[in-house]
Amino acid sequence: MPNPVPLHGPDYKADPYPLYRRMREAGPVHRVEFPSGIHAWLVTGYQAAHATLNDPRLGKNHALGNDNWRRRASIMPEPQHSQLQVHLLHQDPPKHTAMRRLVLDAFAPRRVESLRPRLQELADALVDELPATGGADPVAGFAAHYPFRVLAEVIGLPAELAARFDRDWGKVVQPVGPRDPGRPAYEARLRGLQTYIAEVVARKREDHRAPGWDEREDLLGRLVAAHDTGGLSREELDSIVFQLLVAGQEPVTNQITTMVITLLRHPEQLAELRAGLDEPGRLARAVEELLRHDAAFELTTWRFFAEDSDLFGTTVPVGDSVIASLCAANRDDEQFPEADRLDLDRTPNAHLAFGHGIHYCPGAALARAELQIAVGTLLARLPGLRPATAPGDGLDELAWIPAVLARGVNRLPVVYDRRD
């Protein structure tokens, strides 16, 4: 078996693309190692990743993982693993089909379009709180809050509960091994999040039983009602709520940061985009290219074969994990001419930033609307947006989050001429 390629460390997180290029050139499948010694088979090219995401032989249920994978990769301890990890990302048909059907209406493109004025209000309210001139951090002041405020309205999370959500709970998806010094804090986050989910479920049970309840505007209430009528187990209900609260907002927060960083690194294109924000379709095309150029959801979650199987000429043992690199696929020159070049008017642009196949992100339409509004609002209302220049604040000195599957930063110092 080949020695695994390490996929961790600050240099890799800051810029994984040179490594991905070398891996693509060497072949489509590679044995890789993540933090805590987790091993997987990584698929890198566009066509190979596209085929992998649509391969019916590969399942997502964690029960398919072998003992070696379970020992290393099932970092979340029991009982939380059994109670919070049976959501959509870890299900296969027919269970996946039934669970997905419960959430699709809330994120339907028509509904998202009807919400755009409200999403714009939420974005403007956050920008209004930034300093009028000088510098700020668009992560702490905007990106860390905007996706969750949007999500709360879309899924029907009451304002008083939304105000109590601790973003630190989102770190439960970042691996902390059993012997890591940070393990106690990790497990405390899990317990805090579980307590919060229980409160959300109890409150939404009261809501959906009240006269005049409107299920069309209350996804959380619909999920609780599905549990109460036998359509979901308690573990499935809690897991979907967990997925909504964490996966429904943290990737968008990270994607806003990667988009802003990319534009700051291309000031001429930033200026051109700002000048053309009123041109029909310009911002939407730019967001698609920014998604392709540096996707915040860098890697897919685990997939497994039920028996020893061939994957593009490589034998993958039963129960070993298979992951597709969405970022590597999106920089494949065979699919995207001059793939490393940022072209905000690139078309067609069939990137894989939201995945593909039956596990294609159900919230993609909402994420696109959020990203278009976020980028457009920051550019329009913060003229002269540019990186801060104090020592330690440059774009090459950013500290990227150590998450296995995601790209983003928690701090991004910038300056601008004024706040419009």
Automatic annotation (TrEMBL):
The keyword Acetylation does not apply. Keywords: Heme, Iron, Metal-binding, Monooxygenase, Oxidoreductase. One of its GO terms (molecular function) is iron ion binding. The keyword Iron applies. SUPFAM superfamilies: Cytochrome P450. Gene3D superfamilies: Cytochrome P450 (1.10.630.10). Belongs to the cytochrome P450 family. This is Cytochrome.
